[in-house]
Specification:
225 residues, alpha/beta, Rossmann fold, binds magnesium ion
Length: 225
Amino acid sequence: MENDDNEHVEPVKRIIELNDDLLANNEALAQKNAEICREHGMKTFDIVGAIGAGKTLILEKLVERLASEHKILVINGDVTLRIDADRIEKHGAKCIQINTGHECALNAYHIYNVLKKFDISGYDLLFIENVGNLICPSDFVLGADMRIVIVSITEGEHVIRKHPLLFKMSQIAVINKIDLLPHLEDISVDRMIEDALKINPNLSVITLSAKTGEGLDELLVALNI
Ligand code: MG
């Protein structure tokens, strides 16, 4: 029995070592990304959240508000297609689509490739829309100045406490779709805010409706652009 247990320890340990290497490389490349963006005077934001949380619509609204005074680059991470990139581009940003295939998050290498191959001179804002997922992006920092985690109240009141890691690693948490509150009697937004601040007392927590625009001003202030 004891031997059996030992046999199981070794492969698991090896996987952890491999992952440590991978994450260390990602971390180093993320720092390089941050340097490149700083040199170009470009502020960078990594937007994470589940599929359907409202990342793309919020980005559309932000670009709409900022495009007249800023040159905006958006990197859209998706498993496939460029539907989101096309939606955002209409509002005046240059959008670069990255299809990650089987990978459930963007990593620093994806971003580095764009920064190296695309002429980023003149751009002062970079928004990165990560692949729709509340778990995988916590493994891969990208080198952005700020990470914004977006959840919607339709994901359930406990969505924040179920995913503490991303909230620990973010500077802004957006609770979206508050226009649907009258239809969701079981949801306490106050409880969601409480959960977010318990996980990370330094978070700016913003309640927002991308649909009506409520809360968008507060988000723009928090972005400190
Ligand atoms: Mg999207």
